[in-house]
Amino acid sequence: MDLQHIRSFIAVAREGNLTRAAERLHLTQPAVSIQLKNFQQELDLTLLVRTSTGLSLTADGQEILPLAERVLASVRQLQERAAHMQTSISGELSIGTTMNPEITRLGTFLSNLVTACPRLRTKLHHGMTGLVKSQVLKGSLDTGYYVAGPEELIPPELHALHLTVFTHFIIAPQGWRSRVEGKSWSDLAKLPWIWPYQNSVYNRLLSAKFQQHGLIPNVAAEADVEASMLDMVRCGIGLSLARQPVAIREAEAHGIVVLEALPLPSNLYFITAAQRKEEPIIVAAFDAVRTAFAA
């Protein structure tokens, strides 16, 4: 079935006149007349009859007209969808995640991204923030979350969007208040520490602070998972570092001592390789995470 025949039938039915229908379709009157004739022959139905005022729909024509209009509407919808698919973002985006998903607003970010780019598939890779940064630089991750110290500079090889600021506190076992409160960094360095692994932001924050004071901490144990570090503090092994809400929770639940007089701030960024920042898939990701943190 020729779509042009359907268009001609609809135009004549709506205009009630061959001349006006031809003008509407930007065709000649004979061309519209032939198309209308062919359409009726194809259906083996009489759809229009001549009257004193022009052309009017028969009973069959009145029944066929809304069906014909739905056909053209479906064709337009198909064409619009195809055009959108040609220009819409598709493919796969690998995202490095770190910390608690609630803190990074991961769910809202992904919801925004899927809404804007329904044909895009995401792959999440969870790891320590330093590892996310190195993998983005190497190209094994497209984007990711990165937590930096307050004085840490983002290298020019990275494009970064600042999202928010976190505060971290030194935490000590229950009963250590007299050993840690009001003490200098020199005094604290002598106490046993549960030391975070190199790729974590905790490691970078503490290392920078001890280096600033020219000190070497007394490392009693190392851990790469926050839950393990917290458990060792609860067991009385030594000091460690925790984000503010975690520190407060541990103090209320387990009597952990929180050194609120020595806050260590950090910055949460969303990063990608600088040379990729103009790619549509990367722009879409940054727009989605920006909106998540603007809410």
TrEMBL record:
SUPFAM superfamilies: Periplasmic binding protein-like II, Winged helix' DNA-binding domain. Residues 1-58 form the HTH lysR-type domain. Keywords: DNA-binding, Transcription, Transcription regulation. InterPro entries: LysR_HTH_N, LysR_subst-bd, WH-like_DNA-bd_sf, WH_DNA-bd_sf. PROSITE patterns: HTH_LYSR. It holds the Pfam family HTH_1. The keyword Transcription regulation applies. It comes from the Bacteria. The keyword Cytoplasm does not apply. GO terms for molecular function: DNA-binding transcription factor activity; transcription cis-regulatory region binding. PANTHER family: HTH-TYPE TRANSCRIPTIONAL REGULATOR, HTH-TYPE TRANSCRIPTIONAL REGULATOR GLTR. Belongs to the LysR transcriptional regulatory family. This is LysR family transcriptional regulator. It comes from Pollutimonas nitritireducens.
